[in-house]
Design brief:
Radius of gyration: 24 Å
Number of helices: 13
Shape: flat
Order of helices and strands: EHHHHHHHEHHHHHH
Number of strands: 2
Length: 365
């Protein structure tokens, strides 16, 4: 384990410039490691050279710091906007950032040493609290904007009753978000990340070049995705268990996509296309799940749901349309040739050749 203080960082930066250790900039010099300069900076680390033909690869620790910093800063920047509660998109982006951060901690966990207050469990708890509010926002908007305009006049007052009930639930959920973002535990979480970002602690693996490690970093989540039992479900609505598996498959797609997006600069067109494919599957399964949730909401909030037959029919139709391509999609992902191709793609990252700029992880909302 090692820690770099600000003074040590300046020494490293100056010595790298003097020694010209690399012929190109390598990311964030705060964490870049060369044996001679780290020793002169007073680090306790004993560095063993990791030979790689990809001399322009950022270090694993550098890249982990960049990804974690981006996600944390997004969360911190959106905090006040979420509490102001004027635009639901702020909540959406903050929730996504917490999920991406949780994925980053999973991906880079073997290379970083975080304070206990910054662990993944606390991030997951925050994401869950934000998620309850976000789900209600989506449900209310879907009923209000997508379904209500096409309802019969006689059905609209009944739907309005359900929407009012959801708005009451939303007020309670927002109170939970307010509590989560203002209590001492959240402040402790932020302090822990600020401390780590300013003085990061790593394991010995952090000094290794990133590019040769990409297949090892990406393979676990790809394997978890390809081995998910949800691919064996032929259609939604067959049973409660099958619907749960499809919803869980959606989560697996989301995690795999987030992780892949961290590294998409290092791969070619096939990798980019796979990210787009996973995003499409995630949205397809998300639409199906949203339809199922809406039907459950009607059952809970409108005992006379038979009087909203038009709405139920519209929701079932939306669900069927969402799963229109599921048969062909699942067959593709059960095919051995696609699985082999995906694993082969991970083994062939492209060289890091963008000269003269600091590397950045590629993140999309």
């Amino acid at each position: 384990m090692f820690t770099l203080t600000r003074n040590r960082i300046l020494v490293i930066k100056n010595r790298l410039l003097e020694l010209k250790t690399w012929d190109k900039p390598v990311g964030n010099v705060r964490h870049s490691i060369a044996m001679k300069t780290v020793k002169e900076a007073g680090s306790q680390l004993t560095y063993t050279d990791f030979h790689s033909p990809d001399v322009h690869s950022p270090m694993l620790g550098d890249y982990a710091h960049t990804v974690i910093q981006e996600q944390y800063q997004t969360i911190a920047k959106l905090e006040r906007k979420v509490l102001a509660d004027k635009d639901p998109e702020h909540l959406h982006h903050m929730r996504v950032a917490t999920r991406r951060l949780r994925t980053a901690l999973q991906v880079f966990g073997l290379a970083i040493e975080l304070p206990k207050a910054a662990n993944a469990k606390r991030i997951s708890s925050l994401a869950k609290t934000l998620g309850k509010l976000r789900d209600l926002d989506v449900q209310i908007a879907e009923l209000q904007n997508s379904y209500r305009p096409d309802l019969k006049k006689s059905e609209k007052p009944l739907l309005d009753e359900a929407i009012d009930a959801l708005r009451k639930e939303r007020r309670k959920a927002f109170a939970g978000v307010e509590d989560a973002l203002t209590r001492s535990n959240y402040k402790g979480l932020k302090d822990a990340y600020e401390t780590w970002l300013d003085r990061p602690r790593y394991t010995i693996l952090a000094q290794l070049p990133l590019v040769p490690l990409l297949p090892d970093l990406l393979s676990p989540l790809l394997s978890a995705l390809l081995l998910h039992p949800g691919w064996l479900i032929e259609a939604p609505g067959l049973s409660e268990d099958s619907d749960k598996k499809l919803h869980d498959l959606r989560k697996a797609c989301k995690h795999a996509r987030y992780q892949a997006e961290f590294f998409k600069s290092f791969y070619g067109k096939d990798f980019q296309n796979w990210i787009s494919d996973i995003k499409m599957i995630q949205e397809m399964l998300g639409n199906v799940h949203d339809s199922q949730v809406l039907l459950e909401l009607l059952a809970n909030h409108l005992p006379d749901k038979e009087r909203l037959s038009g709405l139920q029919e519209s929701i079932h139709q939306a669900q069927a349309e969402a799963m229109g391509e599921w048969k062909s999609v699942r067959q593709r992902y059960l095919d051995a040739s696609l699985r082999t191709h995906l694993h082969q793609t991970l083994l062939e990252p492209e060289a890091f050749t963008n000269s003269g700029r600091e590397f950045e992880s590629d993140l999309t909302s």
